Amino acid sequence: MRKKIIAGNWKMFKDLAEANDFFKELIENLHESKTEIMVAPSFTNLWHSFQTTRDYPIEIIAQNMHEENYGAFTGEISAEMLKSVGIQRVILGHSERRLFFGETDEQLKKKVNCAIHNEMHFIFCIGEELKDRNANHHFTVIKNQLKNSLFEISEKDWKYIVVAYEPVWAIGTGETASPEQAQEMHQFIRKTIANVYGNEIAENVSILYGGSVKPENAKQLFQQSDIDGALVGGASLKVSSFIKIIQAI
Ligand code: PEP
Fold this sequence. Notes:
By secondary structure, the protein is of the alpha/beta class. It has eleven helices and eight strands. Strands 3-2-1-8-7-6-5-4 form an eight-stranded parallel sheet.
């Protein structure tokens, strides 16, 4: 059975005190639920956030990691370092990493292999740009992103993967894919995985939607049969909106 997940991506927002306040308020307002709740603070907040939330059903995850285990890579963080502060999951391939930091499918394949080698779970982000959708190339772009970075891993390693479909044109823009557009793409992603790895793996992988998810649009998105939750940017920065999204699933 695939899991329902709501994951917050804080990007480069919130210092230590702000993170602390957020988790105190989140813990006070959290109700029992079968949904897995994840939050990705900045690197500097990981250890403290992990300590603050370790007795609650909140998983602290990282926003990125390097593809090597160690070395002369100034400013970078390895899977082992993340694990040493309690982190078991990382976001890979976020469109902001692809766009602003030049991450390619080839580099992401190395990160994927490194994560698996270190038994690190990951949320793998894919998504087309507006020009791809306007040119009707969106399915090809998504298929290639999957193929180039994920499709050489072995069947047994799919247990480490959650896929996040995040159309680039909907991230931080206020523009959301319609529930029908999102469902169409999620179904395509599941079918593409099934064609290579079979139905069982495809049916068990959680596929999250990301792109301006808010309390107002979450319910309709979550009603779609192939949408298993959300990767949430802006609306994960406030406990009130994050909780409403969790309650919508
Ligand atoms: C994201 O950062 O993954 C994201 C989906 O951002 P937003 O919800 O702000 O569009």
